[in-house]
Every structure is written in C-alpha cells, then in structure tokens.
Amino acid sequence: MRIKAIKLINYRNYSHLEFNPCEGLNALVGENAQGKTNLLEAVFLCAFGRSHRMSRDIELIKNDQNMSYIGLSVTGYTGSRQIEVKLSRGEGKKILLDSCPIGRSGELLGVLNAVMFSPEDLSLVKDGPAMRRRFMDMELSQLNPSYYYRLQQYNHALKQRNALLKDNFAPSSPGLLAMWDEQLANLGESVINARKAFIEELSGIAGELHRMISDGRETLGIAYEPDIRASCGISLHDAIIEALSSSALEDIRRGFTTAGPHRDDISISVNESDARIFGSQGQQRTAALSLKLSEIEIMKRHKSEPPVLLLDDVLSELDEIRQRMLVKSIEGVQVLLTCTALAGLKNAGLKDAKVYECKCGTLRET
Ligand SMILES: Nc1ncnc2c1ncn2[C@@H]1O[C@H](COP(=O)(O)OP(=O)(O)O)[C@@H](O)[C@H]1O
Ligand SMILES: [Mg+2]
Q1: Interacting residues of 297 by C-beta distance below 8 A, sequence separation 6+
Q2: Which of 74, 88, 255, 262 has the smallest number of Cβ neighbours within 10 A?
Q3: What residue spans define the domains of the chain?
Q4: How many angstroms does the Cα of residue 238 sit away from the middle of ligand 2?
Q5: pLDDT recorded at residue 168
Q6: Main-chain phi, psi angles of 359, to 5 degrees
Q7: Does residue 223 have a pLDDT over 90?
Q8: pLDDT 10s digits, 287-307
Q9: CA 64 → CA 13, 60, 61, 259, 282, distances in Å?
C-alpha cells in the first residue's frame, strides 16, 4: 500500500501543500516546530479518523482559519482510493471516501493501513498497561474493523455500568447491573478472544525479530495477560459474569468496574525475566522495536501488502545497530520519516531516501 499524493489546506501550520511521496523512503528533515510531525499526523488522521496526538479536531485547523482540508490518494492491490477530511470550526469533521461522505470514522479503518512509530513508542515496554492495550487495539482495529466496533460497544457498556455504580446505587439497580454485566460478558468475550489470537501471532514474529536485533543474545517472550480468563469447565462468558458479580460490592464502593478486558496487559520478558520491571533501557527499547516491526509483518500477512510506515523522529533515538536493523526491515515499505538532521544517521542505510527540507509549513526537495 502506498500514498500517491497528499494535499493540505489550512491544516496546522500548512497553508497549502501538495506532496507526492516516492514509493520508498521519504525523509523529511527540518528543525523543531517546522511541521514534520504535523504532516505524519495528517496521514494518521486519514488512516484512523483522528489525530495520534489525541488532539481535538479543532486544533488541527490553522489558527487564523475556519476550515481545513486534508486529502490523500492511496493505492494498493485492491485499487486506488481517495480519502478526504474536512474540518470546520462551526460544523465539525466530515470524512469522504471516494467523494462519498462516511457516517462513522470506523469505516475508514483498513482503507489506508498505517503504522506510526514515534519516540513515545520506545517506552511501550516500561509504560503502564494502557499503552500496551492501545498498541493491541490499534493494530487489531486496522486488521479487522469489526473488532473496533465491538471494542467501542464494550467501552460504551462499561461507561454505562460505571455511571450506574457512581449514581448512588438505587434499589432498582441490581437488575440493571445484571443487564450491563451480560453485555460486558458478550462483548468482552469477543475482545479477549481477538486479543489472544493476535498476541499468539505477534509473539512468534516479535521473538524472531528480537533475536535478530540483539544478535542472538536475547530471547523475547510475549504473552497475553487477560484480567479474566476461562478456567476448566467455565466458559469465558461465564468467567466474566462471575468476575463481575464477585467484584460487584467492591465496584459499588469504588464507583467503577474493577474487572474486565479494560484491565488487560501484555507480559514481556527478556531472557525469562520480566522486561517491564527488570529490563535495561536497551532491552526495553529493543523489545519495543521488535513489537512495532512485528506490526508491519502481521499487516503484510493479513492484508497481502505492507502498511505505510510513519517514523517520527525515532531513528536518532536508536543506536547504530538498531537503526540499521530498522532500515533493513522496511525494504519494500513506503516510509515517511522525520528527523532534525540526516548527518547523524549516515550509517543507518538511508542512502536511497528522497530528502525533503521541511520549513515553516513547506516542503522542498533537496
Ligand atoms: N492549528 C495550528 N495552526 C497553526 N500552527 C500550528 C497549529 N498547530 C500547530 N501549529 C504549529 O506547528 C508547529 C509544530 O509542528 P510539528 O509538526 O509538531 O513540528 P516538528 O517539525 O518539530 O515535528 C508549531 O510551530 C506550532 O505552533
Ligand atoms: Mg515532531
């Protein structure tokens, strides 16, 4: 899959940009605050319907303007598609696919498959479980948009249950609580099963990559750590119901739901020791890199073509060996990468990159 053209009008610090990235490596070089991340964010927006920086839509509109346009032409083995996002201070966000408005941003998922890798991802291993859940959920949503809808429904039901718990638990509430428990069990079961299958596949691929990057010195172990699991004789659905009812009193006291897949984690070990707690910074970074690179491989397998890779300022955060591994493993992938200077990356193997200078919301081929 690749991006043929990007057009931005009054988006962030861009007044007007038309950019046709090449098929391989595109290096956007520039000082801080020139618009490099903004450009990758625009691509992410067209892949997921929202900013990876958790910014509100309105923040994407150029400060002194009322409307913003982000247009992307993409092409893949299923053909060419046009994704357009129109933002307006008064009317919010409209997304168009091949000129037809879409109702829900979930409909975008899978049209442009993209993997974003930014410096924050290097702390995927040492961060809290929320980041690792986000990692699973983003990849699974692109691979299978119905996962995204189920997760959304799960989160909605969870919110309703939490509201009920907070809301001075009334005498009529136990019946309502049982109703939400049933919904959470149905939706939670399918979320857990999808995550389990994903992590099983991920674990093999990431293990191999990690062995390569660490030159055979380290063995990576990845396992899904669900908050609730089926046990002998009890189905996953019933295990969730049981966990929810046995924590009900605690939940009422605390005002939120203390058990369920919203508490899941991924366990990560290096040489059989928990890398989240005991890993050195180097081991944690290698593991994070292996996990991110596995995303590309999984996408290739399931979608029959690689995703577009967005590398935001990560190369300079890695040592030379990891830089070279990263660049080697992205052969045949369209990459938009940003950095403040190419000089520091001269051994990373970027010689075939097309280089653009990014300055005050403009791009110039060098
Ligand atoms: N809505 C906006 N309107 C105008 N400028 C913006 C807007 N949002 C961000 N910017 C500007 O974009 C710049 C940051 O761009 P960014 O892509 O994060 O920089 P970098 O090149 O370091 O990655 C800052 O100068 C910021 O003021
Ligand atoms: Mg940046």
Answers
A1: 205, 209
A2: 255
A3: 1-113+307-366, 121-305
A4: 47
A5: 67
A6: -145, 125
A7: yes
A8: 999 999 999 999 999 999 999
A9: 10, 11, 8, 46, 44
Tokens at 35, concatenated: 């618009």
Write the single-letter amino acid at 95.
Answer: I
The CATH number of 121-305, from 3.20.20.10, 1.20.1050.90, 1.10.3720.10, 1.20.210.10, is 1.20.1050.90
Give just the sign of the alpha carbon dihedral 126, 129, 130, 133: positive
Q: Which of 34, 118, 337 has the most ligand 1 atoms within 8 A of CB, as the residue to mutate?
A: 34
In the numeric block, which tokens belong to residue 330? 């992205």
Query: Chain-centre distance of CA 62, in angstroms?
Result: 25
Provide the whole-model pTM: 0.94
Q: Residues 6 or more apart from 302 whose CB is under 8 A from it?
A: 143
Residue 344 reports pLDDT greater than 80: no
* Rounded average pLDDT over 171-177: 78
Q: Is 33 in the pocket of ligand 1 (CB under 6 A)?
A: yes
Other residues' Cβ atoms within 10 Å of the Cβ of residue 90: 6
Edge to edge, the sheet with strand 2-11 lists 14-19, 2-11, 67-76, 79-88, 92-97, 100-101
What residues have their beta carbon closer than 5 A to ion ligand 2? 36-37
